[in-house]
UniProtKB/TrEMBL annotation:
It comes from the Bacteria. The keyword Ribosomal protein does not apply. This is Glycosyl transferase. Keywords: Transferase. It comes from Microterricola viridarii.
Length: 288
């Protein structure tokens, strides 16, 4: 599975299926949990290894209030050292659950995302994930229905999932799921990208900016505490307000210049630096 997807880098590591009856090797020094389900076997393992938690989102919010949400939330009380994706999670887990936390910043791979179109753009992009509630698909459709009335001549691209079975009240291009290598060409046709993030911010805003697209994102600390880049248009959760902001982006007289400036604003943001921050956090925690 890892080798078949462009989303995963080449791994120089040995993979093995964890057997709870056996546990990890006796000389294991560090044990990482990732998704909340893995935190329980990590917690129960008999090893003396230091426990870490690689937290990429606030997983209790993935579920309605009930058993799964509580089980996910309880893992933040296990005493693991958290290393989080972005500053919002680090702040939240430390302030609300007392976890020891470090974080790394989001970045962007410029080999995938770059400006290739220096002309005006008359399309927009929506990260459409109806199967992922925290991406607020239905709310996004309300936004785009209003936007389509304001700008009926602008092409609306939906990508992230095949939405052909949904009743959508405006004209759109259904791009379904795209490979990484296909995204930059689509982005470079678009002036704005609508990205709804109700928990931890998506990677898309930085990737869109690298391709010269203005990210229009719902306002909130979960997003602002991950990136305070001034080119991200943070808007309150109002369909009409977000639709108007999308229309404003399309109409900007300096659209081309701003596109280039946005890309330049993330030119120095590199995953190598994020990786270094992760390793430094890990080594610091191991030293105590």
């Amino acid at each position: 599975m890892l080798a078949a997807s462009e989303a995963y880098p080449n791994l120089k590591a040995k993979l093995a299926v964890y057997d709870p009856a056996v546990g990890v090797a006796a000389d294991t020094q560090a044990l990482f949990a990732t998704g909340w389900e893995t935190a329980y076997p990590a917690h129960r393992d008999a090893s003396l290894a230091k426990r870490f938690y690689f937290v990429q989102d606030f997983e209790p919010s993935f579920y309605p209030l009930g058993s799964e949400a509580i089980l996910a939330e309880n893992t933040y009380k296990f005493g693991f050292h958290g290393i989080t994706a972005g500053g919002w999670l680090s702040h939240k887990l430390h302030s609300e659950y007392g976890m020891r936390t470090d974080h790394f910043d989001f970045a962007v791979d410029k080999s995938h995302y770059r400006v290739t179109n220096t002309e005006r753009r008359n399309e927009i992009f929506f990260y459409a994930r109806p199967v992922t509630p925290r991406r607020a698909f239905e709310f996004g459709l309300l936004v785009l229905a209003d936007f389509a009335k304001l700008k009926p001549d602008v092409t609306i691209n939906l990508a992230g999932w095949d939405v052909s079975n949904w009743k959508i009240p405006f004209e759109y291009e259904n791009l379904s799921s795209l490979q990484l290598s296909e995204l930059n060409e689509v982005y470079n046709r678009c002036a704005a990208g609508l990205v709804m993030s109700l928990s931890n911010m998506s990677l898309l805003p930085l990737e869109l900016m690298s391709s010269g697209v203005t990210p229009v994102v719902n306002d909130g600390p979960n997003n602002r505490m991950v990136s305070d880049n001034p080119n991200i248009e943070y808007v309150p959760m109002s369909p009409q307000a977000i639709a108007r902001k999308l229309a404003e982006v399309i109409d900007r007289e300096d659209a081309v210049e701003r596109s280039l400036a946005m890309s330049a604003s993330v030119a120095a943001v590199d995953w190598e630096d994020s990786g270094t921050a992760f390793v430094q956090a890990f080594e610091g925690a191991m030293r105590g």
